[in-house]
Design a protein that fits this description.
Blueprint lengths: L9 H13 L3 H10 L9 E3 L10 H19 L2 E4 L4 E4 L3 H13 L13
Antiparallel strand pairs: 1-3, 2-3
Organism: Halorubrum aidingense JCM 13560
InterPro entries: WH-like_DNA-bd_sf
Protein name: ArsR family transcriptional regulator
């Protein structure tokens, strides 16, 4: 077991908090899972229209994706979203969240809200 130095990694804490915040919504989890190595989209790029969350009206969901979820993921650096060609791809910080996505994927049967519809 590593010995504690008594220092606090505030930047590390902030980044971890951001990961949990991003993963707190099922649409954002679905987007990140679709871009991870655990899906057929191994090129790390997909049409934004491929994100098909079930439930509400499709037009409302499209607006939420474009005005809330894609920008939040892009601001965190987890995706790059090219609205002009309607493509979502892995962002420069995607590698930071990918281990957490792998952990969620590996334990999807044990975790609520993480299942085949998400992964």
């Amino acid at each position: 077991m590593a010995e504690s130095t008594g220092t606090v990694d505030l930047e590390g804490d902030r980044r971890l908090d951001q990961m949990f915040e991003v993963l707190s919504h099922p649409f954002r989890r679905r987007i990140l899972f679709r871009l991870s190595d655990h899906t057929p989209y191994t090129e790390g790029e997909l049409p934004a229209g491929a994100i098909k969350p079930g439930g509400d009206e499709p037009n409302v969901l499209a607006i939420q994706l474009r005005h809330l979820h894609f920008p939040k993921l892009a601001d965190a650096g987890y995706i790059e979203w090219d609205d002009s060609v309607d493509i979502v791809r892995r962002g420069p910080m995607f590698d930071e969240i990918e281990p957490l996505l792998g952990l969620l994927h590996d334990h999807q049967d044990e975790l609520p809200g993480i299942g085949p519809q998400t992964v």
